[in-house]
Every structure is written in structure tokens, then in C-alpha cells.
Design goal:
It comes from Micromonospora rosaria. This is Polysaccharide pyruvyl transferase domain-containing protein. Helix content is 33%, strand content 11%. The radius of gyration is 18 Å and the shape is globular. With 280 residues, it is of the alpha/beta class. Helix 1 packs across helix 3.
């Protein structure tokens, strides 16, 4: 299994949906898109073996992948869409309050450059209720960054470690994220990212505002933040039309393409018994 299939516990969520339990998921036959992006579903520079299936979130992504020469591409919907099917909330268990805010983050190979103090001031001026700031593990581990938000009076959390090279994956990363989203009335970030779409799907009012910050050596291949703002202007701003946002999120997460457990087992290569292989 490609190690990115384990990111955020995606393979674990899909295995649970397929009725395979909470143990180590079987090897997936293909590359599962691990985050919302504006390219072919794979990160720029992502190693790819020709002919291997790309298991993508949405029809829009499938069309972009096709235009770039990918031919073995299948739309299955985002793992988060499967988690929602596994964890319905009707009726809500409690009243939502406040905002969960996701500052744009870096990762092992790239740091983010930006003014967190300026962002904190903008959040204070904009958000009417209590604010939870969710830092990615990379920034959460940076004491100076974490303390800026703590000293501002925000509740500061981290959903966990996404995993890397099959190690230290938190199989309940998305479960923790969904639980937090359902506690809050609003979800916001300084960039349009997976977290915003997850929040919309989980019933939050979205907002995207503030300095988008800069990722060191950011790859501009697919147009970057400028293209995102041009293509999805409806999702940018301190107040966004919830109905419009819900329709866009449904399309981008591929909710209507969510497979049945039997269909998904077939597409992932799990329809027939196989020996589990770790790290392949």
C-alpha cells in the first residue's frame, strides 16, 4: 500500500466502512487521494506508477486527471464522506457554539511563512463567539506558534498525527476532527482546504479570510491560491452563503459518488481474501 493511503487514517476509515473492523487495513490497490487539491488528486511530485488506479474524490478531479494523461482513474468520494455515513448525527447531541479555526499549515518538508499575530487580530475582530484554533501537528509542536494562540485566549487543539511512511498514523484522526466540527457553529481558515469542506459537510457555517500565508517553495503547477480564489469566490469571505457552500462541498467531496461497502471492497482490491502486507 502506498504510504499516503494511510494519511489521516483514510485506509482505516474505508476498512471500517467495508466491514473489516478496526485492525490494520488490507493493502489498497491504488492511490487514494489524501487531501482536497486543484490538480489531478495527487500532490505535485507525488511518485506514481503508470497504470496504477487513482482513487479520487470527485468528478471534477477525475476530469483534471484525465486531461493530464491519467487514464486509470475512478471516483469513489472522500474518506470523510464515508466517515459521515458511519457516524450519522440526527438529531444533534448538543447546541453548536463558536468557531473552529484552521490556520494554514506546513508539513515535514515545508514550513509556512506568515504573521500569526496579524491573523490572531483578524480572528478576534471577526469571530463573535469562543474560538478553538486547531493547529496541524507540525505547528502544534512549535511551542512559539502554539503559545501565540494560547496567550490570545483561544482554545488550542490538534487532531493528531497524520502518519508518515506507515508509522504513527492515528486511525481516528478524522473521527476526532468530525467530533470537533460538530461542536462548533462555524469553521474558518485563511485558505480553502479540506478542513473547510469537511466542516461544511458536518453542518458548520464556513468562512475563508485573512492572509493565506506562504508555503516555502510552494509548487505553482496548478495555479495556487490565486486560482482557488478565482474559481471558488463564493467560499471566500467572513460570511458565506451556507446553501451555496453545501452544494460545492458535496461536489468536491464526491458525496454522491460514495460506494456501497461491496462496491468499495471491489474497487480497493478487498473483494477477495488476501494476505495483509505492511509497508508495500
Amino acid at each position: 500500500m502506498h504510504h499516503a493511503n494511510h494519511f489521516y487514517g483514510h485506509a482505516h476509515v474505508l476498512a471500517r466502512y467495508c466491514g473489516l473492523g478496526d485492525g490494520h487495513p488490507p493493502r489498497i490497490n491504488g492511490y487514494v487521494q489524501h487531501g482536497w487539491n486543484i490538480g489531478d488528486g495527487l500532490a505535485p511530485g507525488h511518485p506514481y506508477v503508470t497504470g496504477t488506479p487513482s482513487l479520487l474524490w470527485s468528478e471534477q478531479t477525475r476530469r483534471r486527471a484525465w486531461s493530464l494523461g491519467r487514464r486509470n482513474v475512478v471516483v469513489i468520494g472522500a474518506p470523510f464522506a464515508y466517515l459521515l455515513a458511519l457516524s450519522p448525527q440526527n438529531p444533534p447531541t448538543s447546541e453548536r457554539t463558536g468557531t473552529i479555526w484552521y490556520p494554514f499549515h506546513g508539513w515535514e518538508g515545508q514550513n509556512v511563512r506568515g504573521d500569526h499575530r496579524e491573523l490572531i487580530a483578524r480572528i478576534r475582530d471577526t469571530e463573535p463567539g469562543p474560538v478553538t484554533v486547531c493547529l496541524y501537528w507540525h505547528e502544534y509542536g512549535m511551542r512559539r506558534v502554539r503559545q501565540l494562540y494560547e496567550k490570545a485566549g483561544f482554545r488550542v487543539i490538534c487532531h493528531g498525527y497524520r502518519g508518515h511512511w506507515w508509522r504513527d498514523t492515528d486511525p481516528y484522526f478524522l473521527d476526532k476532527q468530525l467530533a470537533e466540527l460538530r461542536r462548533h457553529r462555524r469553521v474558518a481558515s485563511n485558505r480553502l482546504t479540506s478542513a473547510i469542506f469537511y466542516g461544511i459537510a458536518a453542518g458548520c457555517e464556513p468562512a475563508v479570510y485573512g492572509d493565506p500565508m506562504i508555503l516555502a517553495d510552494e509548487d505553482p503547477t496548478f495555479g495556487g491560491t490565486a486560482r482557488i480564489r478565482r474559481q471558488w469566490p463564493q467560499l471566500h469571505g467572513e460570511r458565506v452563503d451556507v446553501g451555496v457552500a453545501a452544494g460545492i462541498a458535496r461536489a468536491e467531496l464526491g458525496t454522491d459518488h460514495r460506494c456501497t461497502p461491496a462496491e468499495l471492497r471491489e474497487l480497493l482490491g478487498w473483494a477477495h481474501p488476501q494476505e495483509e502486507t505492511v509497508g508495500h
